[in-house]
Design brief:
Helix content: 25-40%
CATH architecture of the largest domain: 2-Layer Sandwich
Strand order of the largest sheet: 3-4-5-6-7-8-9
Low-confidence stretches: 1-6
Shape: globular
Oligomer: single chain
CATH superfamily of the largest domain: Fructose-1,6-Bisphosphatase, subunit A, domain 1
Number of domains: 2
Radius of gyration: 18 Å
Distance between the termini: 44 Å
Mean pLDDT: 91
Strand content: 25-35%
CATH class of the largest domain: Alpha Beta
Number of strands: 14
Length: about 280
């Protein structure tokens, strides 16, 4: 596994220790997931719209929450499958843990999944870590200190003005009803002006591709909260701009309703084009 080429705390400033712990925990959880990917594991459904949770989600979540709680016992932990910790009364620091972003992919044998961890202080992200167990890549970002990957600091390259139409990632919240008219209209509008719209069902993997400059933009409608802070931080620290669907400011604070979790993310030279596609789609609910 490649991992990171430098100490995980490099460039992390005041959060160097948190970064080291999160990176190592994510990579260990990734090793667990990779070792079990081709074996038999239990799969259950959750929610009203057919989402799934696997035995691997639960095993990875237990590893991650245990590591974080041991090192930072006063911090609150929110975890995707409910295995979090309350932390000390009045705790200002919250860890968000997505132990297996891409569970539906894993169930059908598609190797497109990642492990995600974020740290928020006063509900705003200050640290994000994403680990890809399949390729052995780890990305990390600290607010104001940049984003880093296996080859060093990330800086999403400029897109040539004469380039073809953009490649865009897309995600929508699991809680949306099938055929939700606003989501369908928005996605149709994007497809009309994009070279390709990718729906990976692993938002943190999509954020990582955007931060690395491998895709041009990412649009989310009523996105899930648990993976949003780490993804937004990784992308913005790599030079990506993120706006609300109406073009206004987007604040990735936790605890907001899903109606405030719609976004358009892209490099600065691509952003106006994507915002135009969104504006020309049907009114959003």
């Amino acid at each position: 596994m490649d991992g990171t080429t430098a100490d995980p705390g490099d460039g992390a400033g005041a959060y160097a220790e948190e970064c080291r712990v999160a990176v190592r925990a994510a990579e260990d959880a990734g090793a667990l997931l990779r070792s079990r990917f081709h074996g038999a594991f239990r799969v259950d459904t959750k929610g009203a719209h057919g989402d799934v949770v696997t035995e691997l989600d639960l095993l990875a979540e237990e590893l991650l929450t245990r590591r974080l709680a041991q090192r930072f016992p006063s911090d609150r932990i929110l975890a995707e499958e409910g295995g979090g910790r309350p932390g000390a009364p009045g705790a200002r620091r919250t860890w968000l843990v997505d132990p297996l972003d891409g569970s539906n992919n894993v169930v059908i044998g598609l190797p497109a999944y990642v492990v995600g961890i974020a740290l928020c202080v006063d509900d705003e992200p200050v640290l994000g870590v994403v680990h890809d167990p399949v390729a052995g890549r780890t990305w990390r970002a600290v607010h104001g200190a940049g984003a880093y990957g296996p080859a060093g600091r990330l800086w999403s390259p400029r897109r040539p003005a004469a380039a073809a139409r953009p490649v865009i990632g897309w995600t929508q919240g699991h809680g949306l009803a099938p055929g939700d008219p606003a989501a369908r209209a928005l996605k149709d509008g994007l497809e009309s002006g994009a070279r390709r719209v990718l729906q990976l069902w692993a938002p943190l993997l999509t954020w990582s591709l955007l931060a690395c400059g491998l895709i041009d933009g990412f649009v989310g409608y009523r996105a899930e909260e648990i993976d949003l802070p780490a993804g937004v931080l990784l992308a913005t620290e790599a030079g990506v701009e993120v706006r609300a669907l109406d073009g206004g400011p987007f604040v990735p604070r936790i605890g907001r309703p899903d109606t405030d979790r719609g976004y358009v993310a892209a490099r600065p030279e691509v952003l106006p084009y994507l915002l135009g596609l969104v504006a020309r789609s049907a009114p959003l609910g």
